[in-house]
Structure formats: C-alpha cells, structure tokens
Amino acid sequence: MLKAIAMLLLSSIPLFASVPTSESIGRIATDVAEGSITEIALEAAGREYTEKWLDDYAVDKVSFGEAYSPLLSEVLPLDNPVAGMEKGGAVSLMSLSDGTVLSFIFRNGRIVAVSRSA
User: pTM for this structure?
Assistant: First the structure.
C-alpha cells in the first residue's frame, strides 16, 4: 500500500526538463517548426550572402541590399548557429563558433531588418 501511494505521488509531480539558455539570445529554440521564421532565419544565416540570398529572403531586394549588404557580407554564413525563441516577428541567432549574434525581423515570412549585437 505504501509503495502504491509513493508511486502515485511521484507520478503526479511534473518533471521539468532543463531548457538551454544563452546570455546573448535567451532560451534556445529546441523544436523548430517547419515554415516558422526560426527555420527561415536559420536557413538564411547558414548561406553565403549573395543576390540569390536577397531573392530568397529579403522583403525588398534593392532597399534591403543597400541597408544591410556590408553587414551580411561580413558575417554570413554563420557557423553552427542556434536560435533563440521567436518574439514579436523577430528571432535572434548566435554562432556557436565565434559568438556572432544577429537578429532578424520578419514580415510575412520575409526579412525586413537585421541587427548585429556585440
């Protein structure tokens, strides 16, 4: 009887898994949904910055290219990136290799802005 009560008590206690976190990007996304902005950002960050990249990811090829080409030419592709949790249409990524942090802001599944954190 005592064993049954102990098993009942143990089964009713929720078990929480430790969620990996980063000081730079917060909680790490461990389950990336297909078609999500996190998936798109990880894909974009892993590719070299080219005209094709602009065609595939940027909301407006010309104005986006003028604004962000120097930055993205320097940092892409990120080596071994991880993503933080999505917040308000934005997601931050960090390269595990060198600590580079980029934040992508999305509108309708396209990147509208990028920022780099120190």
Answer: 0.81
